[in-house]
Amino acid sequence: MSELINNSEKRKEILKHMILELHSGQAPEQVKQRLVDLLQYIPYDDVVEVEQELISEGLPVEEVLKLCDVHTQVLDGHIDQSGAAPVPEGHPVDVLKQENRALEAVAEEVADLLKQRSGLQQDEVPKWLIALHGKLNALMDVDKHYLKKEYLLFPFMEAHGITGPPKVMWGKHDETRSYLKAAIAAVSQHDTLQLDELPLVVEGAVKPAVQSVLDMIMKEEEILLPMSMDTLTEEEWMQVHQQTPEYGFCLVDPQVEWRPEGASASQVEYGVGGNVRLPTGAFNMDELSSLFSTLPIDLTFVDKDDKVKFFSHGPKRIFARNRAILGRDVRMCHPPGSVHIVDQIIEDFKSGKESSAAFWIQFQGRFIYIEYFAMRGSEGEYLGTVEFTQDLTKLRALEGEQRLLNYSK
Questions:
Q1: Which of the 8 DSSP states describes residue 86?
Q2: How confident is the model over 78-128, as pLDDT tens digits?
Q3: What is the Cα Rg of the chain in Å?
Q4: What does each C-alpha distance from 288 to 241, 259, 314 come to in angstroms?
């Protein structure tokens, strides 16, 4: 046993020395070769412990953050996960991995679009940029993924004494957010960008943003998530699981509900005694869920911070929704060409200038009525916007009266 401990300490000593060499300016490829020659593979928990030790010994978090990309490049493909715990289906870590697969799929779609650039003509540039804009908007959904780590996972890791790596990773989250915002801003100029400006946009903004997302996936799956599986208790994971809907899902709609052994239904219900209490009565969770599924209307609620917080899910929903939109900025849920209308409605509702906006369209042979309402509190403060959508095709065709009971459809 003592030999194994000594080997572990020796591995960490070598890894720490190599990271400090990178800090002093050594070439990453030279350091990587030495790592391969000396160690071959590093257990994932050693990486976390070394980062923690470096910060504890006085290396500023900002310096570790600067080194993060470099030492991740050196470690890529040389992290040993053979001791990692299995992840149950539907577990919060499983959901994070599902989201990573979805992000990788979008990154691949971006790569496919970038390959088309060499054959573009100037008149094709706006359409190409709009398509690219849509994919980057989808990648921006990673914000929900990061928020769950920052506000649900990191606090538990810190409570177990793992404080340095979460700080470093949070900093990388913010970098990725900045890269994505810059890329979205760059491609949003659909009608003004010239063909000869595209290389600068692609190389200077789009590729760094996509690569930042992909680099974070590697850090998560090879280091953070295995370490968190070893660290958090099932009770703590249950709390992460319960609070996840507050932040929503990134690009996926998980179909499996995880529940650890011994967990009862009451542990995953919200509200006092399993009830949601309102000024005029109360519902239990089954009743409330059934109510919104039964109403012959579709509802979507966007909160005061412009995030999609709820949607009803009836069997005859007019426009498809899935839980991947929860927590997402409502602007990201609309095509770039209609975002200005969304902005106008929100601006007018927040200012108090207007409280409703109605539209009606022909959709798949049906007459669809859509109305937006500003929701306000007891003091008139803006609480959010509710979208009300209804199929009025049959109602518009009604004539005369029906006063007798008739169950015909």
A1: P
A2: 566 666 788 999 999 999 999 999 999 999 999 999 999 988 999 999 999
A3: 26
A4: 21, 22, 13
| The two three-digit tokens of residue 269, written as one number | 């219900």
Q: Which helix (H) or strand (E) holds 396?
A: helix 393-396
String of b and e for 193-213 (b: at least 16 CB within 10 Å)? beeeebeebbeebbbbbbebb
Nearest to 71 by CA among 222, 187, 243: 222
pLDDT tier for residue 268 given thresholds of 50, 70 and 90: very low
**H-run or E-run covering 64:** helix 61-75
* Class of residue 92 by CB neighbours under 10 A (exposed 0-12, middle 13-18, buried 19+): buried
Q: Is 27 helix (H, G, I), strand (E, B) or coil?
A: coil
The pTM score is: 0.73
Q: Determine if residue 63 is left, alpha or beta; phi over 0 gives left, psi from -120 to 50 gives alpha, anything else beta.
A: alpha
Whether 53 and 12 have beta carbons less than 8 Å apart is answered as: yes
Contact in structure between 136 and 110 (CB atoms under 8 Å): yes
